[in-house]
Each structure stands twice: as structure tokens, then as C-alpha cells.
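Quick one - first record:
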Amino acid sequence: MYYPDSKVVKEVATPQVDSPDGKSGASFGHLMGANASPEEIVAFYHRELRARGWRPIDAATGTGALTQAAWTNGQADFTLFINRPERSTPDIQQALVGYSIEYDARVEQIYPPPSASQP
């Protein structure tokens, strides 16, 4: 699901990994460009995700994003990070020429899955 008239710039994916505070779930999403305000993009995802049963949660912090938002469906978390293109690497900036906003939208599995039994 993409904000209308977005340009997909790059696929972003991470495998499930062991992190200092336990395992981290795999994630998959896209880096995109759009001509919209951060508020318009967040409102679009909020409306579309809520209609599909996702509920808002506190967004991750510490990324330096202009705007952050997150939702969960109990099995996975959907995170949205919105940045100005000038904060991107030169290759991403080039791909985003003509777009006012860069955003990263991705789904991350909740690990361990809620149905897994704890040792």
C-alpha cells in the first residue's frame, strides 16, 4: 500500500536477527518519494491501516525522522518514517528529484510470534 502518486525508490528488507535485547523480527518495505505533507501521508496510512484492523502504537524513536508513526495488527508492526530528501544519500536524492518528501514504510514481524510459547 502506497500513498497515492508515490514513487518507489528502493526496496528495504532485513532478516530476523539476534539483537542485544533479544531477537528482532524480519522486516520488508519500500523507500518512496511523494509530494505531500507529512501530515497527509500519516493521515492516509492511519485511515487505510485502521480500515484493515491495524491500531496505532507509539512510534520508534531515535531515527532523526521528520515524522514517525506506527501501527500493529498483533502479528506485525507497520512503521512509517518521513524525511526531507536532502537528508538522503546522493543516489536517493537523485531518484527523488521532483518529490518533496522521502518516506520509508515497512512491516516488521513481531518476534517471538504472539502464539509462541515462552521457555
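second record:
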Amino acid sequence: MASASKDSKGRWRIRFYDGGGARKELRLTGMNQRQAESIARHCAVLNAARCSGTGDIDRGTALWLQGIGENLYSKLAAVGLVTPRAAAVLGAFLAGYVQDRPDTKPATQRKYGSAVNHLVAHFGENRDLRSITRGDADGFRAFLYRQGQAENTVRRYCGLAKQFFRAALRRRMIDENPFGDQVAAVRGNAAKFHFITREDAGKILAACPDHQWRMIFALCRWGGLRCPSEVLALRWEDIAWQERRFTVRSPKTEHHEGKGFRVVPLFPELAAVLTEGFDLALSAIDAAGEGKARGTVRGPVITRYREATQNLRTTFQKIVIRAGLQPWPKLLQNLRSTRETELAESFPLQAVTAWMGNSQLVAAKHYLQLRDEHFERAAGKTDSVPPQVPPQVPPNTSADEGRPKNPKRQNPEKHGIFRGSADVFASLPNLRMGDTGLEPPQQNTGESGDCFTGAPTGAPKPQPADVAALASVLAALPPDRLAAVLLELVQSQAGR
């Protein structure tokens, strides 16, 4: 039997006699009466199994024993009710965790390995998991800062440590996660933003050593693709030239439902570079004598770099320097950031994020840049306008075929001051022209007549004052009356 009672300080304790007749005591902390009595019942079952030497316990006690924390389990082991658990060693546990995650990609495995190396370097390979406290987690964070790691890098490593120890907690190897309250969310760093202007983009394109690099740069700067994962995954058959769009396969987000691919417009700047690359691929097929048609060009768009582990950043940095520019922070990511910022100025944000393959929250936090041009436009400066997208021309079509047709214009609504006047003049086409034509007939006086008034040349001409008076009278007439007067004048002249 095992009994639960309180000591002089009001703490619960469980007492029982082992097989040798010695009294054992197990002290509890933070327990109420119901919990203490439940533990006492399980202790009685465990003690009876020990005393009988069979080790048989009921299913309820076995399940309870599997679910308790390490602190209570170690107290049971201290009084001889259970066998002590094997020590959970940090190095062995982390190596087993990484090995048990075959669902992760090679890039994620490399990140896990880097975090494991930092944890082992700080705590030691043989450190017991149960001995690592929240204070030790703070010490690991300080250890990373002393190494000169950036803030976001420290957050990533602490986030991975939190993930590792959460797995140990789920396996009941520890009672709490020492990294549970560590800040791990990666935040945006506006200081590392850099906008690559169209002028600089042209210089970089000209400095690219071959067309493979021209397409890599265009896919990042004008298409907004992630590099290298999405750039290397693009194939020629993913491009729908006539629909002016292409499909992007995203290895980074494919584990999310419906996020494995997205459809992106074939932007004019990108279409021009990809068309050249398509023609080069077609020329290579013709040179090989395979006789394939244009539509059979298949396979990866980027053929020179096929390993995701290849370092494109180093080569791209040399290209930027060759173009006469100063390399900026986050060389490849800022190409994508620039394109998303540029598109957000001309298109709705929900369309831009769908094309870029991220959420609006992530876009606002990590990609969209605040530029000086935004302040200038807000202040009313007219020479700073968002970029306009020119018309696109797909391959195998002429410029006229690719140019969008202008929609048929409809007649604008008539201004109110002329409303009804057209009905008065509608009868003019039905009038017949006399034999004399539009010009008034010559007078028989032998004198030449004025070609505008029909009066003889020597006849007195109207004075400016008379003309002004007539104009003021006509201006005072309502529009419909003015139209009627003019119509009568035309008809009288036509009947002469």
C-alpha cells in the first residue's frame, strides 16, 4: 500500500514500504489532493510489482508511466519504483532528430546541421538535455551574438533550437522547452533594401558573360523568381507564349497545399530575353541536324547550372562589378524585392503577391521598399511617375500581330449647351443645291462683286460696330432659336 498525506509545511508526500521493509517517502510539489491520491495508487501498483519480482503492472499504470514528465519519473526512480531512464545526451539526440527527418530538402538539412554545430559547440556533445535551463538558452543566444552573427541569423538558430527541444518535449525526454520563450521570428531589415533601377539593370544585362546569365538575371529582376530554386526549375514547356504567361514551380512552398506552382505574366522585358534564349536553343537543334520544329524545344531553360548547391552569388557579384556598379546587400533577393516593389506601384497587391508567390504580410515585411520617388509623387512632383508596362510581342508573331488592338471608341456625350441643336440642322442634307451653286451670282452692273457678301465691290461694307451689335444679339438668343435663325439664313441663301 501507498498513502498520500501532508507534511508540516502543507506539502503532499507519498509513503510506502518496499520489499525489504524499509519505509520510502516521495515528496510532491505543486500537487492537489486528487493528483496526490492518484499518484499514490500508481505507486502502490509499482511497489507491488517490485515486491513480487514479476514486474507486471496494469495497462493504466503503464500508460500513466509513459506520460509523466522527467521530474516525477526521476523521483520514482530515486525510491526504487522504476528503472532510471537513460540520459538524453544532446549530441546523440540532435543527430537522431536530423536523421529522422527524411521529409526535409537538402537545403533544410544543411540549415539543421549548422544549428546543431552551434548547439554542440556551446553546450557540449555529452550535455544532458534535462540539465539545459531557460537561462542556458539565454546564454546560447549571447554566444551567437559574440560570434558576430546578424540579428536575423540569431533568430533563425534560436528558432531551430526551439524546434529541436520541442521534439524532445513531445517524446517526454524533458519536462519543458528551455527555448520556448526565445524570440525566433525573422524580421524585415530595411537597411539592407536596395532598388535596382532599369538603367542599372541594362548595364548588368550588357555585362553578363553569356545568354544563360542574361536569362538568370532577367528571371530574377523582371520575373521576380527565387534564385536558384525557381530559376533552375523553369522549363521551356512551362512558357505559354501566345497566352503571355508562364508557370513557376516553387520547391520552397510545394509542401503547402496549392502552393507548389503559380502562374506569372510574361512581362515584356523578360519575354525579350527569353525569346533570344529560345532562338539560340532552336539554332543549336538545327546545327545538330536533328530537324526538330520550333515547338519541340524542351527541357530546362537554364542548362549551365543544374546543381542547387552551386554558388551563383559569387559569379553574379563579379558581373555587377564588371557593370561598373557597387554590389549591394542580398544581391539576389533584392532583385526579387525590386520587382515586387515595382509591380505594386501599377497593379493591385493581391495580384502582385499571387505572381510573386508570397503573402501580403510577407511582402510588406520583407520585400516592398519605400523609395524617394514615393515621397516626390506624394508631394506633387509630376516628373516622377510609376513605370508603364509596354505591349508584349510573343515569338513567331510580327509586331503588328502582337500589338494589342485599340478598342472602338464611342461618341462622347454631347455637351448640354448644344443639346437639341443637331436636330435643327438634321434637315440640311436634304436641301437641294440650286443651279448657281454655293457662290452668289454676279450682278449685271458690270462691276466685280464681293465673293463673300455678293455685293458689288464698290458697295459699302459693314462696319465693326454693326458686326459687334449683331454678334451681341445672336449671343443673347437661346441655342435652339439661334440654330433656327442660322437655318433660315442658309435656306434663304440657297434659294437665291
